[in-house]
Amino acid sequence: AVASKGNHRHFMAKEIYEQPEVVGRTIAHYVDFSRCAVRLPELPFSFRDVSRLSISACGTAYYAGLVARYWFERLARLPVEIDVASEFRYREVPLDPGQVALFVSQSGETADTLASLRYAKDQGQHTLAVVNVPTSTMARDSAVVAPTLAGPEIGVASTKAFTCQLSVLLALAIGAGRQRGTLTEADERRLVEVLAAVPSLMTEALRSEGEIETVSREIAKAKDVLYLGRGTSYPLALEGALKLKEISYIHAEGYAAGELKHGPIALIDEAMPVIVIAPHDAVFEKTVSNMQEVAARGGRILLITDRRGAAEAAMDTMSTLVMPDCDPVVAPLVFAVPAQLLAYHTAVFMGKDVDQPRNLAKSVTVE
Ligand code: G6P
């Protein structure tokens, strides 16, 4: 069947709008709502016996893996090492047989990720692949496949595949936490309820599109944009910057907000918008103080926060986008939406071909 854009101008917009549905479908695949428990794929190991998880991936899938590191470490107390696949495959990383290597890929065909998977397999590791294409090479080569149910993704810049990857990875981290005894049944029940709320939170996040479109006109004037975040919002800052540079060709950088003082603060002026991703979570106060450092140097801030955060931050910003309040554990899923819409509208306003950005390929099957 030929994919259609429906009522949308671009596949990217259609795919952004599909997220509540495909994320809901993906979550339903990994959750038994009647038992309020996570349903793991059949595993040839127990997370109880795992002492280190290695994750490798490329591009947006790598950023999904970076978010997952926080989840596996926090919820399952499982140490995670993660690297981009192009480094992982050549680093000669020592991998203990019987441990688990996890790979994340929309296409299941990315050359570096596939080579990393084969390397881990050769070292006697259990391989677990989170892939969107069930007939892909990675799905075939991996011992365990955890599918994302995003459906075909046409836009070169990944959107719905990313949030579906996050959904699967969070479910896996919860399941790992149960197996390792770091989460109680009550914890799991609570987390399942939090997961179940995600699609409607994403729908609510989509309602900020009009405001995002307005502020994108400011972003479109910039030559450089800085994205800041802490905790799971740090990988989201990286993903927001990647989306913007991929489709608008504006130079954008994502930084851990705490690293601001170690370099990027030197760049702050009124010409470089600073996009701060700050849900009201455990590190919110810290991010706010970084934001004050930006403001004190004349930086123009676009704050993306939630209702509680907006009430507490009370700062003079260029603009503040207010997302619905949600449990911080799922904030990356909700806050991905404004990050995607901002890149999308900036690029559309600049007249760029958002579905087919120059020099980029949907799937990088050669090195
Ligand atoms: C390319 C695409 C990205 C994608 C990356 C990894 O760079 O343009 O959108 O994130 O490859 O692709 P994969 O299929 O392995 O997720």
Structure summarized in a few sentences:
With 367 residues, this protein is α/β, with parallel strands linked by helices. It has 14 helices and twelve strands. It has helices at 11-17, 19-30, 59-75, 85-88, 111-122, 137-141, 160-180, 185-196, 198-206, 209-219, 233-248, 284-296, 307-313, 331-349, and strands at 31-32, 37-38, 53-57, 80-84, 100-105, 126-131, 144-147, 224-229, 251-256, 274-277, 301-306, 319-323.
- The strand count comes to 12
List segments where confidence is low: pLDDT < 50 over at least 5 consecutive residues. none
What sequence of helices (H) and strands (E) makes up the elements? HHEEEHEHEHEHEHHHHEHEEHEHEH
3D shape:
globular
Share of helical residues:
40-55%
Distance between the termini: 30 Å
Task: Tell me, rounded to a whole number, the average pLDDT.
Answer: 96
Instruction: Report the structural category.
Output: alpha/beta
Strand content: 15-25%
Helix run count: 14
- Order of strands in the sheet with most strands: 4-3-5-6-7
Distinct ligands, ions and cofactors found in the model:
6-O-phosphono-alpha-D-glucopyranose
Radius of gyration: 20 Å
Function: Catalyzes the first step in hexosamine metabolism, converting fructose-6P into glucosamine-6P using glutamine as a nitrogen source.
Keywords: Aminotransferase, Cytoplasm, Glutamine amidotransferase, Repeat, Transferase
Active site: 362
Catalytic activity: D-fructose 6-phosphate + L-glutamine = D-glucosamine 6-phosphate + L-glutamate
